[in-house]
Amino acid sequence: MLSLGYVLQQTMNGVILGCIYSLLALGMTVVYGILRLINFAHGALITLGAFFVYFVSVRYGLSFIAGIFLVIGFGGLMGLVLDLIAYRKLRGGPEVALLITSIGFYTFIENFLKLIVSPQPYAFKTPDYLNILYRMRFLTFRSIDLFIILSSIAIMIAFSIFIKKSKMGIAMRATAENLEVANMMGIEINKVISVAFILGSAIAAFTGFLWGAKYGQISYDMGFLTGVKAFVAVVVGGVGSIPGAMLGGFVLGVAEILSVALLPTRFAEYRDGIVFAILILVLLIKPSGIMGVKEEIRV
Amino acid sequence: MNQKRRIIPEFWFIIGGCLLFLIIFILSRTLNRYLIHIIVLMGIYSIATVSLNLTNGYTGLFSLGHAAFMAIGAYTSTLLAFPLHLRESYELPLLPAFLTGADGAMPFIVALIAGGVFAALSAILIGAPVLRLRGHYLSVASLGFMVIVTTFAKTLKGITRGSMGINAIPSYTNIYWTYLWLLIAIYVVWRIVHSRFGRAMMAIRDDETAAQVLGIFPMKYKLLSFVVGAFFAGVAGGLFAHFTKAIRPFEFSFAMTFQIVIMLIVGGMGTMSGPLVGTFSLMAFRYALKPVEEHLKVYGFIELVYAALLIIIMLWKPEGIMGKRQLKR
Amino acid sequence: MLKVKNLSVKYGVIPALQDISIEVKDGQIVSLIGANGAGKTTTLKTIMGILKPANGSIVYRDEDITRMSTPQRVRKEICLVPEGRGIFNRLTVRENLLLGAYHRNDEQEINLDLEKSYSLFPRLKERENQIAGTLSGGEQQMLAIGRGLMSRPKLMLLDEPSLGLAPLVVRELYELIQEILKQGVTILLVEQNATMAIRVSDYVYLLETGNVKLEGIPKEVESLEDVRKVYLGG
């Protein structure tokens, strides 16, 4: 029954999913803006982040707060590693080469986890203070949901300040706009790219934790589709625009949940298909997305 | 003056084909079933790689949705060729009378071609919008197409039996059919590549703007290579379905596309022998390692090695085993 | 200050510069003139380290910088004002200027230099927080030069500053260039607008298809019949 309460509740669920997508889109667009690389490995970092916190906190009992700080560092480190091993070498080559290599990395990490950890999903048990249930008139949610919303906002604000005010942030924006000229200015491009990878990957790893905490379950393949959806969010919001990426994440999250919620139940399985249908529609109708800067998407 | 007798290439194909079938005949008589099984699979995957090579290697359209066309081909040919007497028990729809032969199902060859045609039609449908996109947008959009197709495969339960998939598919595929189709695929790709179509495609791959300036209308050629690629992928899918005797939506996911892509890249995109070398060597590698995998219970190990191999190739020899400077800068 | 010796640069297999030798002395303005494709921009890019030479050497203030990376050269106080301005359209005027000083750490001095740029280009101060893409052509050129100045260069490479600008603006621009010279910056200027360039320069090199066709002080170069016909409009 389509009551107001139901719609509000689903909208809230959409917003929460949207927070996660926004964070992922943010991480993805930081790298994409500079390298024009769709980093499939981004999805792998989600999975890695989730499993990292799982082992550190759920299995071995370190406090979740510590786990969160550690996973952010871990993610950053992984991003740097990927940059140094591969992407740096491929820089300046054909775009497709980077894409293929990132797919290779994703598959490697996914199968590595499948092998070393398990092909079976694990239950991600969160501490009680993240599970407190809040019941309001129209909305029901748990404290983890609040945590997701608050931490997303915090990260987005922190990131915006960084990218607007700090020297490195300005350099990153400049490099994203025109890498050659940035190089001519004496900006160390390699350093800028490394920072982009570290930031993006750290955020992705943290998001993996959020995902595991929210949905209570993690598996070796949880990152793939989510990672690609992050790119869809970037496109929807507008490639090349950081606020666009964040907006795109929200729009996609709400659209995904609401479309499933408002259609008859048998359409629930169309969920993923709907996300990609949105992608194709956006690419056809308004390729620059909601807030996008003109980029050659068409040939 | 002496007129030089030109030996037309088709002649070589026919000779080669006869030789091939002779070899296959000998093999089928001498090798055990397991090895024949592997050889057939190699053939099927080769059809997929060869067709993807036309789209990705020669035209530069990095499509990640090839598994979608295989899925379409697989389901179409299965549904058309499924024996009538089994349809009820397997909850599959009956075909309208005018379409079928005596036993309420189409002959295998017709169903197979229909699968390819259906895949080709969907390629036209999705190609028109998607092929306009550049580089990685095309890749992700084609990936999205694959997700959409598998989603439909899961949801149109009345036709596809949803996630459970279809079982008890009659085993029509054999080694002869497979390699005949492979030969056809290679011949078709070869002909296209060595014609003005092929030259146009390669021009588009190397520099689309320059190609346009030369008067080449990109969409026509992109669509041609995409559709031909899809047709053979559909055929491969049909062969696959009637070989493995069961199909489910999740089989035609990214993992399958990845397999084909890696075989193509390792072998060498944009060369005629590349996809074959890649497919045969990687599959041989897989089956050689399979006993190790099972013995040590390390499932997924082969995919790991594949992925590592892809990364290594991309970093050090991106043109693949058979390739000449293509992906390299 | 700058000695380029026997420089050869190739784009793949196509030679862009063949055996070029150029000298710029302290406090001079030296111009490279020549038609499109003569290799002028290529020369500047190679001096800046964006392109790697196949042969030859670049000696700057008695130091061989041929192997150095671009950021290293920037730190040696060489700056390039690229062809077409090369400003970051999506950043503000202020941010563009600050980027010129990216490699510097002395915040107070940077702010001083910012003020100095503003005094040199008052219009930029007015538009401090405006997005650079909204500026007029002339203002963008000033921004590009101002940004170059922010790195406190000893040597400034100016690539076709008058491109696309109205004659009045070009005159204003060249007054500014001479002002900069007075402040102690050595300038290597590339121009298609040979007339203006010759007028302000101490020495001129004429490039043609990757070679130095001739060189000399402006009076000499101007007087040559061929040059007048082809490059100075008769």
From TrEMBL, chain A:
Membrane topology: Multi-pass membrane protein
UniProtKB keywords: Amino-acid transport, Cell inner membrane, Cell membrane, Membrane, Transmembrane, Transmembrane helix, Transport
Pfam family, one: BPD_transp_2
An MF annotation (GO) of this entry: L-isoleucine transmembrane transporter activity
GO biological process: D-alanine transmembrane transport; L-alanine transport; L-isoleucine import across plasma membrane
Location of this chain's protein in the cell: Cell membrane
Domain of life, source organism: Bacteria
Cellular component GO terms, alphabetical: plasma membrane
PANTHER family linked to this entry: BRANCHED-CHAIN AMINO ACID TRANSPORT SYSTEM PERMEASE PROTEIN LIVH, HIGH-AFFINITY BRANCHED-CHAIN AMINO ACID TRANSPORT SYSTEM PERMEASE PROTEIN LIVH
Family to which the UniProt record says this protein belongs: Belongs to the binding-protein-dependent transport system permease family. LivHM subfamily.
Protein's UniProt name: High-affinity branched-chain amino acid transport system permease protein LivH
UniProt organism field: Candidatus Atribacter allofermentans
Upper taxonomic lineage: Bacteria, Pseudomonadati, Atribacterota, Atribacteria, Atribacterales
UniProtKB/TrEMBL annotation, chain B:
Record localization: Cell membrane
Membrane topology value: Multi-pass membrane protein
Protein name as catalogued: High-affinity branched-chain amino acid transport system permease protein LivH
Keyword Glycoprotein carried by entry: no
Cited Pfam families: BPD_transp_2 (PF02653)
Subcellular location, principal: membrane
Chain ranges passing through the membrane: 7-28, 34-54, 61-84, 104-125, 137-156, 176-193, 223-244, 256-284, 296-316
Keywords: Cell membrane, Membrane, Transmembrane, Transmembrane helix
GO molecular function: branched-chain amino acid transmembrane transporter activity
UniProt KW Repeat keyword: no
GO CC field: plasma membrane
Automatic annotation (TrEMBL), chain C:
Cross-referenced CDD domains: ABC_TM1139_LivF_branched (cd03224)
UniProt cross-references to InterPro entries, sorted A to Z: AAA+_ATPase, ABC_branched_ATPase_LivF/BraG, ABC_transporter-like_ATP-bd, ABC_transporter-like_CS, BCAA_Transport_ATP-bd_LivF, P-loop_NTPase
Residues of the ABC transporter domain: 2-234
Single annotated GO MF: ATP binding
Single GO biological process annotation from the record: L-amino acid transport
One Pfam family here: ABC_tran
Keyword Nucleotide-binding among record annotations: yes
Record keywords, A-Z: Amino-acid transport, ATP-binding, Nucleotide-binding, Transport
Signal sequence segment: none
Keyword Secreted: no
Family label: Belongs to the ABC transporter superfamily.
Listed PANTHER family: HIGH-AFFINITY BRANCHED-CHAIN AMINO ACID TRANSPORT ATP-BINDING PROTEIN LIVF
Protein's name according to its UniProt entry: High-affinity branched-chain amino acid transport ATP-binding protein LivF
The species this protein was found in: Candidatus Atribacter allofermentans
Gene of this entry: livF_1
